[in-house]
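Schema walk-through. Below, the input block comes first and the output block second. Nothing else is stored per chain. Lengths vary across the set, and this one has 474 residues.
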Amino acid sequence: MLAFLLIVGLSFYVMASSLSGMVGDSLFEQRIRSDRSSLETLASRVAPLMARSDAQALHAQLLAAGGELGGRILLLDQNGKVQLDSYGEMYGARLQYPEVTNILVRGQSVDYGVHELDSGTVLNRSRLLFMRRTGTAWAGYCTAGIVYASDIIGVLLLVSPVQEIMQNLYQLQDQMILIFVLIAAAALLSSWVFSRVITRPIAGLNRGIQRMSKGDFSSRVRVRGSGEMKQLALAFNSMSEKLETLDQSRNQFVSNASHELKTPLATMKIMIESLIYQPEMDKDLRTEFLTDINNEIDRLSAIVSDLLTLVQMDSQNVKLSRENLSIAALIKENAHRLQPIASQKGQQILLSLSDPCDIYADKSKLNQVIYNLMENAVKYTQNGGVIRVNLQRQGRDARFTVTDNGPGIPKENLPHIFDRFYRVDKARSREKGGTGLGLSIVHQLVLLHGGAISVESEEGRGATFIVELPLHQG
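--- output ---
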């Protein structure tokens, strides 16, 4: 701010100096031309009179000219001594003013200078603006050589007041100081307002970043103004929101993973302690306990395996081993694998495959998507239910749907169905051996293939999972 005001002040100083100099020069040049012209005319008239030493005529001429010119006229000889004074005060005095010396010594025909009457100091006109003194009287000294027969025989000196000119210059100076103060105040005010407008959102953004750096991802900044600052605030809020969501998801994931891993471990601990502290346990009960422990180990292994799969996909290190294959063939394969389980529950798996939908994809991962969706349909559909699997081509995409007539999914659960460890009915899901990660894995695998997955369901009326995949031909 100080540097800005310094630049403004320096610029104004240069401008004021230049303008004042130009005005001063203009005022003085008018005065100089007038005094020089009159004094040169007077010098030509008195030259013959001075040559013949006609003092009476000279005195009359000087008195008349002094009244006309509004100043004091002195007649000096070749030595700079006053011979006549229209005021009658300085007879015989030797004057060594620069204006007189320039005529008698340097041979100039005319000269002009400004003097301070109280001290007799000769001042440079370029410095007059900055040498104001209260009560000071200023006078202009104009000299003209008296030439006779090509020789300078004397000097005429016209002393005329220039107080009016100086007053005009001082008024100009005062006005410029006032203008400078107003400009400086306006510049200071506008700079303060401008800096507040600019720095306030930046300061708010900085505070938000500091809070975020301390782990507060709920930090948001106010969106103000327009243009780049508005876009920056919106971008920050969007980033903060995503980080908060990610942090919440991570915490939820850790909590859920810990819970899911702790449950089978706690179950196994109870069973193993029962075996340890009851050595005389019935053989059939012991076998049942060991079988349950084995099942819990399998479940724990499945959870760890699914977790590793998700971690690998999150790190974006998964590489697809693509090959040409038929989605219809994979559906038939998985329907055949699941038919024994469906038959035990009296279920029907009905296929409607209108197109083979040849695709260039990773066979094992696409097979996992199809199997998980069809297995879920079989697992969560009641006995005697129907699972319908449909495949058709839509433009350049394949549309694969799995529909069941099971209990369905409540509306409030639909947005979270692909979240990790999310279960609609936690108790029943664990009973059926689910890890809560299957649909999350399916979702990630579909995204890896550039596709999309969604679900439509009403509670009590079944559910339909819809997968859309782009058909890339190899």
